[in-house]
Amino acid sequence: MARDSLFPLALLGFYGLAFGIAAFGAGPPAFDDHPGQLYRLWHVLTRGPAPWAWNPDWWAGYPELQFYPPGFAYLGALLQRASVNSLSVATAYQAIVWIAYLAPGLTTFLALARVLRSGWLALPGAFVALTLSAGISSGVEGGVHVGMLGARLAWALIPLLLLVLVPWIEHGGRPARAAALVVAAIVLTHPAALPTAATLIVVGALVRPPRRTRLAGALLILILAAALTAFWTLPLLLRIENTRALAWGEAPAIGGFGVALAFLALLGLARARAAGTAGLAVALFPWAMACVVVADRLALEPLGIHWLPANRVVDGAWIAFILAASLGWSGARRIPAPSVPEGDAQPRPRVSRRELLTGLAGVILALAVSWPGQRTLTLWPRAADWPSLASIERGLRLPDLWAALRDAPAGRVLFVRSAVPLVYGSQGHREWYRPHTHVTALAPVFSSRAIVNGTFTHPSPIAALTYRGDAGPGAISRLVEQLDGVSLFGRPLDALDPETFARYAETLGISVVVAIDEDAVRLSFLEGSRAFARRASPAPFLIYLRRDAVALPRAVGSGRWTVTLAGGRDAWVSTRTAYYPLWRARVDGAPIETRRGSDGDLEVKLDPGGHARVVDLDYRPGAPEICGLVVTAGGVVGLVAFRRRAKAA
User: Fold this and answer.
1) What's the predicted TM-score (pTM) here?
2) What pLDDT, on a 0 to 100 scale, did the predictor assign at position 336?
3) Which of 339, 442, 377 is nearest to 124 (CA)?
4) Nearest to 161 by CA among 137, 178, 139, 173
5) pLDDT of res. 337
């Protein structure tokens, strides 16, 4: 990076650091999804990095990171372990929040400074990437405030991929193997950004001849990335029936700011050839991404393919338009191609007054467009909107809740709501989107109790059972916050009768139910129950305890669990844990049959009758998991061979 880029980069970094200190400098944030994301980091640190590692604490058990991108949790665990455990889990998570916030601005700056040969011309685009919200999941609001860290980190990797690809785009030859590593990181962090990465690589291959050879090089990069991530993606694809797609979300929206970016991107397209081959790739990138988003929305989603929803893929189009709009705003001029490889000393003229004024004017214009409502760009945080975990613990008296749960009868805790509202008041404030926190997702950490519900929308079949009353196939199409205080197990709270609730409670091993005071008038299924009774509880929580404890599977070793069950009139008995193909069951050392129950639970076949039997449950990786590890090992070997061959060439 040229020395004259350091000052604009310092300005960007200073602004980002000031925002971060004001927003989450006092401790890890706990607004909305953050507590659940913190739990996932804790899961990796305590149960290991294997994606299929069983999490017994949520939703009657689930392989938590097999069906949720594990990249951000791996990064946090790496930081925590690299500190030789001197960083607490909460501090490591706070560091990830910092990285997620700053990364899009920094990577966009580096990519644009390389393409435009000017840090000042790169500054407006980097500032927009750093501060953009605009309703997208990777923006400041969605990716940092709400807590969708994986989406924002993957978004930040797209400009980094461009930076890695620029020498290949400009000079030809073989793409750097770092491109495969970046694409692999994107897949592990948020697969919805994979179409963006693949589109950028293909566009980079097509902007100069020989296109067939370059497309082969692009395909090799994607194959290497697929191999490197096979330890996660192969079991994900082969076990996909054991999860539920999350299909909530509105159609992608553009808005006035998006139209302005598109206009500048068109201007950049007209000026692209003056900026060299890399500039042409940047100029074509957003229009290729627009085609991808339209195809996803109009072709794939109507067919029921919800795994890469258009409202998530559109984030990639936003970053592509930011990059191309920077090209249009800069007034790209002919830049001599460097005669030496990138990274060697390159003569660079001093920054011109035009570059300085163009860069500052771009930032000022972005500020002017966004300042009135601060909805497109999030320019400064209000302290009340960014509560820390410590402040929420104090405000909701959570230590008292954790203590009450620890003293409750054995069994799982069912939270009637997924979240606890942070705003109370008139009926006008009772919409589902009012400020809230899923802090109850941390109950397993602070009370050592397994939970059902109490966290954000989740792809588990047991979550689908809780949301809609069945665990069968089909996407989860509503945000769980929209169900809070409205329904449970697919039935309105007012219409849920004690008998129906008792059946679900038995299957899921529920011994404690936690509601909040707003729901008191709709809890007839508990008030009329003979099995549950209300107990003293800290406001705003209401706690109902089962009169008898419930036996749940108990861990007795690595991958080994045991539970005592009595056979009934039916030979098939629920183990009160979620079904997954990796479970095997034995009685007295002899294997017994297992199956998925109608409620998504693991059932074992016992002899009919009331005789209690000790059932041993084994949880071990299967063929897809082992094959995925082997393919990833092959990918590492291939990456090394790719590098050696490139040096030989």
Assistant:
1) 0.93
2) 46
3) 377
4) 178
5) 46
- Do 414 and 453 touch, CB atoms closer than 8 A? yes
Is 512:412 a contact under the CB 8 Å cutoff?
yes
Which residue type occupies 195?
P
Q: Is the peptide bond before 191 cis (omega within 30 degrees of 0)?
A: no
Residue 641 within a domain: no
Q: Residue 374 — pLDDT band, cuts 50, 70, 90?
A: low
| Whether residues 602 and 526 fall in one domain | no
Residues 424, 570, single domain; the answer is no
pLDDT of residue 532: 94
Question: Number of helices (H) and strands (E), helices first, in the chain?
Answer: 21, 17
Q: Clarify whether residues 542 and 558 are in a common domain.
A: no
Q: Are residues 536 and 559 in the same domain?
A: no
> Residue 244: pLDDT above 70?
yes
The answer to whether position 111 is within a domain reads yes
Closest Cα to residue 184, out of 149, 139, 152, 231? 231
Cis bond before residue 209 (omega within 30° of 0): no
Same domain, 612 and 473: no
Q: Under a CB-based contact definition with an 8 Å cutoff, are residues 237 and 625 in contact?
A: no
Of 502, 519, 546, the one marking the end of a domain is: 546
Say yes or no: 290 and 331 in one domain.
yes
Overall size of the chain counted in residues = 649
Could you tell me the two tokens for 122?
A: 């790169």
